[in-house]
Prior knowledge:
This protein is α/β, with parallel strands linked by helices and 604 residues long. The strands form 5 sheets. It has an 8-stranded antiparallel β-sheet with strand order 3-2-4-1-10-9-11-14, with helices on one face. The protein has a 6-stranded antiparallel β-sheet with strand order 5-6-7-8-12-13.
Amino acid sequence: xxxxxxxxxxxxxxxxxxxxxxxxxxxxxxxxxxxxxxxxxxxxxxxxxxxxxxxxxxxxxxxxxxxxxxxxxxxxxxxxxxxxxxxxxxxxxxxxxxxxxxxxxxxxxxxxxxxxxxxxxxxxxxxxxxxxxxxxxxxxxxxxxxxxxxxxxxxxxxxxxxxxxxxxxxxxxxxxxxxxxxxxxxxxxxxxxxxxxxxxxxxxxxxxxxxxxxxxxxxxxxxxxxxxxxxxxxxxxxxxxxxxxxxxxxxxxxxxxxxxxxxxxxxxxxxxxxxxxxxxxxxxxxxxxxxxxxxxxxxxxxxxxxxxxxxxxxxxxxxxxxxxxxxxxxxxxxxxxxxxxxxxxxxxxxxxxxxxxxxxxxxxxxxxxxxxxxxxxxxxxxxxxxxxxxxxxxxxxxxxxxxxxxxxxxxxxxxxxxxxxxxxxxxxxxxxxxxxxxxxxxxxxxxxxxxxxxxxxxxxxxxxxxxxxxxxxxxxxxxxxxxxxxxxxxxxxxxxxxxxxxxxxxxxxxxxxxxxxxxxxxxxxxxxxxxxxxxxxxxxxxxxxxxxxxxxxxxxxxxxxxxxxxxxxxxxxxxxxxxxxxxxxxxxxxxxxxxxxxxxxxxx
Length: 604
Ligand code: F6R
């Protein structure tokens, strides 16, 4: 939610800011702006509703070497030029990612209302910093304002008579910083400046960071110096580029075989799962009565794959909770419960808060996270990094399959430690998991066929995804993917539940994507498919049954490579991702940046 960047150095700032903002656009893309110091020490602002390319079009060339930039995902106030960041009030210009919950109260208490020209909470913060700024000491103003703010924030602030200096402070909302020979950088995420530095640090919460061209200073709110803890990324600039693909989403769909290998291979030792390098002791897996999986969106659907598998193999209660609900429903967690928190970004605020709640009840929390050093990774007792590389497209694809793969490894380990699986069976299970990336590579070859069949979906207003068991959990992910990038209404239904109401919506030509990969419910799903087919549905069936040709069962059959059915989720979901992708592009939409969405949801 909103991307921010700041740079101060010895080369021109504007292109660094604009290029960085383009990399951060996945975080929000309804308006954009920059502020920079002119030669006379005054601050100049360019901002507009629209994307970074629209901002680029209104920026003149200039020699400024210090500035800040923002790409917005609107929370308070519509998408207008006035509501775009940066906001300037008196001597202060700032950009913000987060929500100031008490902005209204602050505006009234500090008599700021007459100064405001936008509808944003951010402008209130700018006015407040200006009110407390004596013209001499920016850090004192920051120290006074920060305790007054309720909510989440990552601010980059410029004070008019402090040219060349950017001040930054954050609570919850992410911010990373780095220095290089070109100067000092700060951003919501290091993709914005990775071409200048792979070494970076996470700005600690409630610390004030002062960036100058040749130095940085980090101090707490009491003025004590803090040493930044530097991290190094294990991917480079090419991983954050399209590399010949027309979109990031297509690139990320195709990266899945390699991404899965990066998740599982380092954790397979002598044919068995090992979490030694992650520092997770066997006692973690032994002493566990029940498991709760908490996440949002696609990560939660990956959790559902985990639940089906774990419950099946371990025979202990496994619950999946939507993070935003978990916090308000008095979850039953004991000190023998394992809580697994799943998040690509590691910054989703609902998931982070759910983790914090879980930690008040158990110290057996484990996160499955992609982004190194992110808040969820840092705050959970143990972390499994998925090593999938940056996921830039807003719709998650490779993050889902690597999260699911992590659940397969965890389940196998739990089963071994809890004597729910023999060593021989565990070895077979792991061999099957090792084959997943080759199976996905086979499925990716079906892309032409999938693109062809989506032509039938382009004019649909409603679609249904049906399945039973693990195929039902996949249906939910398939429907979400289609909705978010093609704007076609899609509903996932447990196939047996359709006739309890929803079948009323099936009429001539309505596309139904049916999944039938599980033998124990196969005949039942086929019966459910016949029921929708008899009412005129256009059925696209995904199964491993190469014998299916019967037009009374389906209109199009996608024959998946034969694999042990516990592992069919991986290949089936890739087809569902491609259905969503080609429907979106077939409709001429921007699959990478669907409307109203942003990749990293850091507001509640
Ligand atoms: C859908 C999608 C979202 C995310 C969700 C959680 O394609 O990407 O549903 O899965 O916002 O995000 P993370 O995994 O970053 O916590």
